[in-house]
Amino acid sequence: MWGLMLTISAIPAFSDNYIWCLSDAASGKTLVVDPGQAQPVLNHLARKNLVLDTILVTHHHPDHVGGIKELLASFPDCRVIGPADSPYQGSNHLVRPGDEVVWKGLTFQVLGVPGHTLDHIAYFTDVEIEGRPVLFCGDTLFVCGCGRLFEGTPAQMRQSLQTLRALPGKTAVYCAHEYTLANLRFARSWLPEDEGLKQFETQCQSARNAGIATVPSVLENERQLNPFLRWDDPAVIAATRAYCAKQGLPADSDNAIFAAIRHGKDNF
Ligand SMILES: [Zn+2]
What we know:
Helix 5 runs antiparallel to helix 6. 35% of the residues lie in helices and 27% in strands. It has one domain: Ribonuclease Z/Hydroxyacylglutathione hydrolase-like (Metallo-beta-lactamase, Chain A, 4-Layer Sandwich). By secondary structure, the protein is α/β, with parallel strands linked by helices. The mean pLDDT is 97. A hairpin with an 8-residue loop joins strand 8 and strand 9. The protein is built from nine helices and 14 strands. The site of zinc ion has 4 residues, from loops. Zinc ion binds next to loops.
């Protein structure tokens, strides 16, 4: 750890993906998360004179793994760390929930977060980088939103989000997409009286107008604002029960409340 000068930067890819790039300025050694495209990563590495030595994979979707083969052609010794039980077969270092990943003396915990996909994992370190513990959570938790349930059940996803919700409040949440404004439009429609959401929307709108990323967010803000982390918040329960009554959906448990919010967003 000593002697490292770590920075995290966003490499934009496709229309709204962020490939997170963690690099050590002292050695130039670099880790990237979910490189769905190779060229933007190669450009970034060349511009900053960095050497890719590790790739972290959160789940099998092509916009997260599509660039790996091409990156390995340029960096053949690169470790590709990814979930063991996954349709993606390109990882050369398989991990399971509960495992640890060590990069340059920095330890990441591997968290199982099924829901968006069944193979989805997240990487968390309580070592502060740029002043905060770091969570790379792929498509599980977004700023004021969460991933769609392509493979898992609402109960699995709520459990996964409960795992993430329990991390330290000051954790920086590095998710893989810039979906914030769309998520906020939904959240504001669900909870129109929520002053915190109103203020945060104004803040994020200004950031986007200035071309600034809204990611990472801070976990304690997500706990206060993100409807998908608030299945046990009385204001969210009340709003969701009203929706359930109209839609004929159950609203009798944490999982039912969470499922109904996800249903609302899917049909928004
Ligand atoms: Zn995905």
